[in-house]
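# nightly structure sweep
# worker-07 picked up a monomer target from the shared queue
# config: single-sequence mode, recycle default, output format = structure tokens
# input follows
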Amino acid sequence: MNTTRRTFIKQAGATGLGLTLGGLTFSAQSYANIVGANERINVAVMGCNGRGSGMARNFQRNAAANVAWVVDVEEGALKKGVDAVKNAGGSPKTEKDIRKVLEQKDVDALFCAAPDHWHTPAAIMGCQAGKHVYVEKPLSHNPREGELAIAASRKYNRIVQVGAQRRSCANIIEGINELHNGIIGRVYFARAWYTNRRVSIGFGKKVPVPSNLDFDLWQGPAPRRSYQDNLIHYNWHWFWHWGTGEALNNGTHEIDVVRWGLGVDFPTLVSSEGARFAFHDDWETPDTQTINLQFGNDCLVVWEGRSCNAVDSEGRDRGVIFYGENGAMETGHDGYRVIDQQNKVVKEVDSKQVVDGRDLASPNVGMDALHIADFLDAIKNNRRPHADVAELHKSTTLVQLGNIAWRTGQRLITDPSSGHILNSPEAQSLWARTYEPGWEPII
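# output follows
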């Protein structure tokens, strides 16, 4: 048998299915039981309540990885992470403080699914500790952090991949290549959207911190605020102090596909409208929002977010549609279709896999597996991953600029070479944030 372990990993990842060896079919999960543990990349998973536990399982199922540690500041979430890894055949150690885990010399990589305010600080700490990093979207809480994440990745020569799984999806890659090759001619407009049926978070009460939660460590880099009972685990997304709203929580995925398809970097004009319309409660970010991004005289992008109205658009809960001279291309989770000017579908590529765009743990295991495989292969071959930190900083900044425009009520003029805001010191002041003393990210 001449098939090497590395060849298996690449082939299994590329197909999302498995490989036939000696007449038997092995999945990446089953092959992990054959490969020696000392050949695998040891991963620490930070943040285990929802997405983290799903990804911990998916990492453990990969033949090239071993989840050596699960890390969470809340005991219930920590148990979710342990159970997920054990169900995939692993046996992780546990810790609540990521700083202690990063000191371990046998940890090769960090996967971060902690809240948004932790993403870049954890990525920087990981790079400084000599670990490669896979950080969930959004890359950063604010644009300045994205710049720092790039600097850390390059200074310490570490792979930093962002959780933009569509970058590793073969059908989406094919569709973007078709777009670049002119299948609908010159493209000048793109629309992206996200829908959900989120409920009210009510009005939180200031209560004692639960005994099973280290709230000080949960806040980490963020300046300290009092605990309230409608914040953890998920509702922090809707508070500017820790979260970034629906635009970053989900819009980042589609805006990344838009920017990739259009071949643009930073915009020249940014505006945003919306509000918290659906309910009256503690939710600070918009539940209904549009972000408009103009790139000179080349193209326009519109993102629409509806957190509390789940009616599909173009027959999808979320997606992207590009408009060009000769028609349109629509992309969903893992496929695309081309429509001509007579509204006829002239090409359609769809894997037929079930994808739940609102699943908090793993909308599609196959897409996650491909992105994990790309990250691990990038480490082994010392190359940039599909969703490299520098590329995803650009995509993340687009929606962050939309939020800044919304928060200031201003139409922003921006530098197309960097994204920096040119016409408003008030808006540019939101480019960065303050930190809890002693937690400032320093490269």
